[in-house]
UniProtKB/TrEMBL annotation:
Family of this protein: Belongs to the transglycosylase MltG family.
Tagged with keyword Cell membrane: yes
GO MF annotation: an example: lytic endotransglycosylase activity
EC number: 4.2.2.29
Enzyme's top EC category: lyase
Region (Disordered): 1-52
GO cellular component, one term: plasma membrane
Job of this protein: Functions as a peptidoglycan terminase that cleaves nascent peptidoglycan strands endolytically to terminate their elongation.
Protein name as annotated: Endolytic murein transglycosylase
Localization: Cell membrane
UniProt membrane topology term: Single-pass membrane protein
Length: 436
């Protein structure tokens, strides 16, 4: 500790010399001899004090430098310890001890540490440190997308990371296209089967946890049974649809339209009820983001009716005509006038074709808009966000009729029935003929 004194206080300089007037240091400083002319004792003391401050600054600088070095060393040791578990390395499983495969979820924005923590919880790796150490050595980790992955358990971290970055490890991933229905349907002319949502979910649920080569799946029938549950609240049905869903004429179809089009990820080890509840509740959020809860002020339809109308728009037209077809629906409902959409006839038949037969159109069902006024009992497919928005804000127009005249999707609109008949005359040969 370096203390200094002026006048009667005694101090020592940085190297231990006394500096009071009786000291040898003081006498030496003030001894006769060469000195600067005209400099007073006070000025010489000021010079001495300046020199001492400089020495103190160098001492403090050295001390601070030592502190920084120690801090950097401490951080380095922390990082080393975090990744390696210390001098002995992180705990890791040995090769050749793999157990049954398990499903690990990668959330949006997950870091390698967070993925590793879930892998530890699922018994995939022995420690987060081992996983992180392996992850930083595999550049493909940056390409891993949010979703669910089937990984072997009780394996070295390097093997776990290698398995994770393999695209084949991803499970529970499904794409639901616009206009897709819950159940399979067939094309009248080609007999080709269009897979329904329940079939797509069943296929995406298949996983092989034992490595036997024979995967286990949630069946189509299991999804259909879960989707027909009497208590729709267990299926994530939103409040704005609950009342209508509770009164649908066919329980198997009560979730129609409530699972939106898009790319989905689900845990294939979950129950079919939980999987459907996830898809329905997240779809409700998608629909609500379009303004479906308040759009009735413009369209005159409640949220569920908006969804039903949007499904008709989706099945009856191409995106460039969505808003016009939506206006036709609203205009006809206001007349009132039957909608008379062939897509609603096809829905009850589980078939697809542009045209329908006279007998089919005359058959009364809760969906056939040739046989009744108003909207169908449920949506007839999963509408796209674009179709929902078209119903929420339809184009301005007085149209009551439209007809698609060719395979390119060219569609003509009019309010006059006579003009509509003339437009039908423009249909390409065979385009509107039924395959039955």
């Amino acid at each position: 500790m370096n203390n200094y004194r002026y006048e009667d206080e005694v101090h020592t300089d940085p190297i231990g010399y006394r500096t009071d007037e009786g000291s040898e240091f003081h006498r030496a400083v003030n001894a006769p001899g060469p000195r600067e002319v005209g400099r007073s004792r006070a000025q010489r003391r000021q010079d001495l004090e300046a020199e001492r401050r400089k020495r103190r600054g160098r001492t403090v600088g050295l001390a601070l430098g030592l502190i920084v070095v120690l801090a950097v060393a401490g951080v380095g040791y922390f990082v080393f310890d975090r990744f390696t578990g210390g001098p002995g390395g992180p705990e890791d499983f040995a090769s050749g001890t793999a157990g049954p495969s398990v499903v690990v979820r990668v959330h949006p924005g997950d870091t390698a540490e967070q993925i590793g923590a879930d892998a530890v919880d699922k018994g995939v790796v022995a420690s987060t440190g081992a996983f992180m150490s392996a992850a930083v050595q595999n550049s493909s980790i940056s390409a891993v997308q949010p979703g669910y992955y089937l990984l072997p358990s009780h394996v070295p971290a390097s093997e776990a990371v290698t398995a994770l970055v393999d695209p084949a490890a991803r499970v529970g991933s499904v794409v639901i296209s616009e206009g897709r229905q819950l159940h399979d349907s067939s094309d009248v002319n080609t007999e080709a089967v269009k897979k329904g949502i329940y079939t797509l979910l069943s296929e995406a649920s298949c996983i092989d946890t034992t490595g036997s080569g024979t995967p286990t799946c949630i069946s189509y029938e299991d999804f259909n049974a879960a989707g027909a549950a009497e208590d729709s609240s267990t299926l994530g049905v939103p409040d704005w649809a609950a009342e209508r869903v509770s009164t649908v004429p066919d329980r198997d179809r009560q979730l129609e339209g409530l699972i939106s089009a898009g790319s989905w990820d689900f845990d294939p080890t979950a129950s079919p009820t939980d999987i459907l509840a996830q898809l329905v509740s997240e779809s409700a959020e998608t629909y609500e983001s379009t303004g479906i809860l308040t759009a009735g002020a413009n369209s005159g339809l409640d949220p569920y009716q908006t969804l039903v109308a949007a499904s008709l728009v989706e099945r009856e037209s191409l995106p460039q005509d969505f808003s016009k077809v939506a206006r036709v629906i609203i205009n006809r409902l206001a007349e009132p006038q039957k909608l008379e959409f062939d897509s609603t006839v096809n829905y009850a038949l589980d078939t697809t074709e542009v045209a329908t037969t006279d007998l089919d159109r005359a058959t009364v069902t809760p969906w056939n808009t040739y046989a009744m006024e108003g909207l169908p009992a449920t949506p007839i497919a999963s509408p796209s966000v674009g179709a929902v928005e078209a119903v929420e804000a339809p184009a301005d127009g007085d149209w009551l009729y439209f007809v698609t005249i060719n395979t390119a999707g060219e569609t003509l609109f009019t309010r006059s029935y006579d003009e509509h008949l003339a437009n039908i005359g423009k249909v390409e040969d065979g385009f509107l003929e039924s395959g039955r």
